[in-house]
Amino acid sequence: MSRNVLLLSKAFNSNVRRLCTAPKPVQQAEKLVLIDVNDKTGYGTLSINRLPSNSLNKELFNALSDALDEMERNKSRGIILTSTSPKIFSSGLDLDVVYHGNSKTYAELWSAALDCFLKLYDASFPSAAAVNGHAIGGGCFYAMTCDYRAMVNDYKIGLNEIQVGIALPKILVMVMGKLLPRRHAELSLTLGTVYSAKDAQKVNLVDDVVADKAEAIAKCEEFLNRFRKIPMDAVNKTKRSIRREEIEYIRNHKQKDIDDFVKAVESVEAQNTIKMYYEALKNKK
């Protein structure tokens, strides 16, 4: 094998590995999302618990949606989204679903993802992400959906779907376009940039960089505390005004975003890339 082919193979494997979870056995947890409510503050900590890498599938999206519904029913004063994994916030879409799926399963996956996104993005309570590990692809998306992000210094974050031939659904483009300066957003989305925590802070993708998960949780609590003396109804009306474009897009064009996602995943380029990765994994065994 030539040196150029070897280099291409290494780069290819790295890019796909960052986008989706490799097909490793998933630890079956009693609950995919753990809820811990602090009675003193009224804040709920929602911990993604699909180990080893918190790969995102329909069941996990639905579990997170159910947890957010519970927070709404209990009139939570705020939530902190984090992970039970010591190194991974979420590694992105479950590769088993992406590789073995079909139009129906892709549509169900993205429908569940959008329902969950809307519940978090339009929640009646403030939200903060304690990003205690790598947040790639869908993991980055859900961190961006929160009102605030504190990220542990050792890890990386970004939307890199385009590197394996998957065009980004419009809602991801819209959300990142609101967070990052226009030029940084354009380059990040078209290059599939994966940032270190410090570089992510420089472009406004994360708000604070911290040493460990405990500090990330503390920073999230500090952020949520800032809303305690402000009437929440006024906060929500103002936030919804700021986010009206994204909220109305999902409510009015959800099926289009699902259709676009299905087409992107089913594209020849994306499917060939994912197939090549699977074959590469088989050859290593």
Key terms for this structure?
285 residues; alpha/beta; four-stranded mixed beta sheet; 12 helices; globular; disordered N terminus
Describe the model.
With about 280 residues, the chain is of the alpha/beta class. Helices cover about 55% and strands about 15% of the residues. It is built from twelve helices and twelve strands. It has a six-stranded mixed beta sheet with strand order 2-3-4-7-9-12, with helices on both faces. β3 (about 45-50), α2 (about 60-75) and β4 (about 80-85) form a beta-alpha-beta unit. α2 runs parallel beside α4 (about 105-120), α4 (about 105-120) runs antiparallel to α11 and α6 (about 170-180) runs antiparallel to α7 (about 180-190). The protein is globular, with a radius of gyration of 18 Å. It starts with a helix and ends with a helix. About 40% of the residues are buried. Mean pLDDT is about 90; it is low at about 1-20.
Per-chain topology:
Blueprint: H1 3-19, E1 20-21, E2 33-37, E3 43-48, H2 58-73, E4 78-83, E5 88-90, E6 93-94, H3 95-100, H4 103-121, E7 127-131, E8 134-136, H5 138-145, E9 148-152, E10 156-158, H6 170-179, H7 182-191, E11 195-196, H8 197-202, E12 208-210, H9 213-225, H10 232-242, H11 244-266, H12 268-284
Parallel strand pairs: 1-6, 3-4, 4-7, 5-8, 7-9, 8-10, 9-12
Antiparallel strand pairs: 2-3, 10-11
Helix pairs in contact: 2-4, 4-11, 6-7, 6-11
